[in-house]
Amino acid sequence: MRPTLLSRTRRWLGASALALLVGVGGVSTAFVLTGQAANAQVRNVAQIAVPTVNQQGFADLVQAVKPAVVSILVEATEPAGPGAPAGPGGPRGRDFQFNFPDLPEGHPFRDFFDQFGGGQGGPGAEAKPRQFMAAGSGFIVSADGYVVTNNHVVQDATKVTVIFDDGSEQVATVVGTDERTDLAVLKIEGKDLPFVTFEDTPSRVGDWVVAVGNPFGLGGTVTVGVISGSGRNIGGSNYGDFLQIDAAVNTGNSGGPAFNTKGEVVGVNTAIYSPNGGNVGIAFAIPASTVKQIVNQLIDSGTVTRGYLGVSIQDVTKDIADSVGLPTAKGAIVREPAADGPAGAAGVKSGDIITAVDGDSIDDALDLSRTIAGKAPDSTVELTIWRDGAEQKLSVKLTQLKEDAGQTAPNAPTPPADVPESTSMLGLTLVPNGDGSGGLLIQDVQPDSAAAQRGLAVGDVVQEIDNKPINSVADFEAAISAVQGKGLATALVKVARDGEARFIGLPLNEEG
Predict the structure, then answer these.
(1) Of 95, 178, 182, 475, which residue is the catalytic one?
(2) Is 289 a catalytic residue?
(3) What is the tens place of the pLDDT at every residue in 93-136?
(4) Boundaries of each PDZ domain copy (predicted)?
(5) Averaged over 288-295, what is the pLDDT?
């Protein structure tokens, strides 16, 4: 029997698993029971045609792809002491950590965990640098040895070992990583290695998916499920667009492939949703379309370049759409164009709603981010924007996104000590902002008002109404009257909190 990662430390521990796949046939005709029970009759109703499922198992598929799936063993060291940064198995999110607390004296794993898990050593033991071993999964994508895995599997590793399906090993080199998509490419030596390819046509929700990987160090584990959803956005991701699958994915599966029934890679397993740390049938995979784009760049240059538009954006809610007369609540509204950014130079303004790029519709802010990131730096894109109740077209020449690009928020406004002028409208009590930056400071919010329901709070600063600057109570009252004069029931309000601006659609009837 081929040794697993766990059996490398203690051979006496064995594990086996039996997967039973039950095929469910489809019923081609539905029937309705009518009349008395003694004289029951069966009547045909609308016939449903269900394709016959001929797939009796996935053994042939697994046998074909399994040689290209590898386990990845990572070694890393962190300094000793309570203030040391988290290592591969700690809060940074490594998949597998050999560090079990409170093992009794004489336990067969005690010596091993003392060495690699930070040393339990007993009370008063001298602190030592912590050596971590973490495990993940990966797969070979070329005959000459390029391997795809997750960035978080190999991040900060001092040594990466690739373990093949037959148990043989090879130390790998990290070619490049991309933190934004959590992908990495490794290189091992070889000229005629088995490899797998990516799908050309995107899989659909409901399609079969087969996950092969190294959960809990059990290399070559196969699980089966379906694609449960697509376009998922999960916390901590810059660009979202994950596939959701229900094939069992656990700790150590990260970086491993999910296959379709043709043996093509549909995604790279990356994360699970789990309230208890175990599999609950909700896993997320980076789709093949994204993986191909990133992996090709990493193989070619070791880095990833992305287009940069230079806008701060947010989703368009129904309230916002209503406030500007946009027929559907789609697109991304521009909070602010970046100083000296390409969008601002091309004429994009705060309050513009970007509804399409190069003719492709934009659903939300995340969709716009993904779309622009997928464009080449120095390329020119055509933006369709909604401004002043009508569509406009703007051409923008993108620049390159700097990976450390970030926005430094200015200091939050300081409430004035004594301001005589104020107004109370729409559930808000407003006073002039006394720090010289303009706008009206929200001094009070009625708890049951539409403003409160939409998240406005004391200390927020109202900067604009309907894209018009607001610097006084008179400006505010006039702007609200102007919106009502247009026949709109919702006003587009730009507010700032802690120096960061955002838009809301505020209903003008105080009930909200």
Answers:
(1) 182
(2) no
(3) 433 333 334 445 554 444 544 444 444 445 555 556 677 788 89
(4) 298-389, 426-478
(5) 94
- The full set of domain ranges for the chain reads 67-121+128-187, 208-301, 307-400, 423-507
Residues in Cβ contact with 83 at an 8 Å cutoff, skipping those fewer than 6 apart:
none
Question: Maximum distance among all alpha carbons in the chain?
Answer: 88
The amino acid at residue 322 is D
Q: Is the pTM of this model over 0.85?
A: no
Looking up tokens 């490794």 gives 186
CA dist., res. 332 & res. 503, Å (int)? 11
CATH of domain 67-121+128-187: 2.40.10.10
Catalytic site residue from 71, 137, 152, 449:
152
460-512 pLDDT per residue, tens: 999 999 999 998 889 999 999 999 999 999 999 999 998 889 999 999 875 54
Fold entry, domain 423-507: Pdz3 Domain (2.30.42)
Is 254 designated active site?
A: yes
- Take residue 75 and report the two structure tokens written for it: 């070694």
Nearest to 153 by CA among 140, 139, 137, 168: 137
Binding residue numbers for substrate: 75, 152, 182, 252-254
Binding site, annotated residues: 75, 152, 182, 252-254
N-term to C-term CA, the chain = 67
Strands (E) located in 45-145: 69-78, 130-140
Q: From CA 480, how far away is CA 485, in angstroms rounded?
A: 9
Residue 107 among the catalytic residues: no
Which strand (E) or helix (H) includes residue 476?
Answer: helix 473-485
